[in-house]
Amino acid sequence: MATLDAGMTREAAFALLGEHNKDPFHIEHGETVEQTMRYFAREFDPENEEFWGIVGLLHDLDWEEHDDEPEMHTLYATPLIEAAGGTPELVRAIQSHTSDYNTELPRPELQMEKILFATEELTGLIGAAVVMRPSKSVMDFEVKSLKKKFKDKRFAAGVSREVIRSGAEMLGWELDELFDRTIKAMQSFAPDRDTFVAAEA
């Protein structure tokens, strides 16, 4: 597989995220998706784990400042990423996860882009479900519990079930497989973490 260059270090990417995101929930979401992407990179594309991670970290860079314009999501981020040295590959990968909002953006093609598309909303749903649990931990969270929350449209209503279904389809995975793999990804980096930050209503 080709080596992918993000054009910036993880430290620079995190600093950029902090410049444009002040809500701890958004910072944590970036880190959660980063670590989820790193988990999948170790399986599918280990040479490019750093790139996958930076894509995950910065995927919602402009959301906090522009969440009232979902069709412009990632487009506001593009010049910010470019100014920080981000490569066209990095910009493209980040833009691809919001192609459902804006059909002019590139559709996910690489495995990395498909996994970002499929898991980004799902990590939010899992995080929201975990916050409600007595343990507040992902370590004892199971697919059957996630399926119940997924079917309950009122729970975490902002999470697009259609995007998650579409992402699973892109990957050629059954929903249960996507759920299981994403839970395992989150368990891989959260054994010592007792809680996820709840999103502000």
Keyphrases for this structure?
201 residues, mainly alpha, 0% strand, globular, hydrolase, HD family phosphohydrolase, hydrolase activity
Report on the structure:
The protein has one domain (10-188). Helices cover 59% and strands 0% of the residues. It is built from ten helices and no strands. Helix 2 (24-44) crosses helix 10. It is globular, with a radius of gyration of 16 Å.
Helical amount:
55-70%
How many individual β-strands?
0
Outline the biggest β-sheet.
none
Q: Which spans of ≥5 residues are poorly predicted at pLDDT below 50?
A: none
Oligomer: single chain
Instruction: Indicate the mean pLDDT.
Output: 93
Which word captures the global form? globular
Please indicate the percent range of residues in DSSP E strands (runs of 2 or more): under 5%
In the residues, how many domains can be counted? Answer: 1
Q: Rounded to an integer, what's the Rg over CA atoms?
A: 16 Å
So how many helices? 10
End-to-end gap: 42 Å
Order of helices and strands: HHHHHHHHHH
Supply the helix-strand structural class: mainly alpha
Keywords: Hydrolase
GO molecular function: hydrolase activity
Protein name: HD family phosphohydrolase
Can you lay out the helices and strands and say which pair or pack?
Blueprint (H helix, E strand, L loop, with lengths): L9 H11 L3 H21 L4 H10 L4 H4 L10 H7 L4 H9 L14 H21 L11 H9 L9 H11 L3 H15 L12
Helix pairs in contact: 1-3, 2-3, 2-7, 2-10, 3-6, 5-6, 7-9, 7-10
Keywords: Hydrolase
GO molecular function: hydrolase activity
Protein name: HD family phosphohydrolase
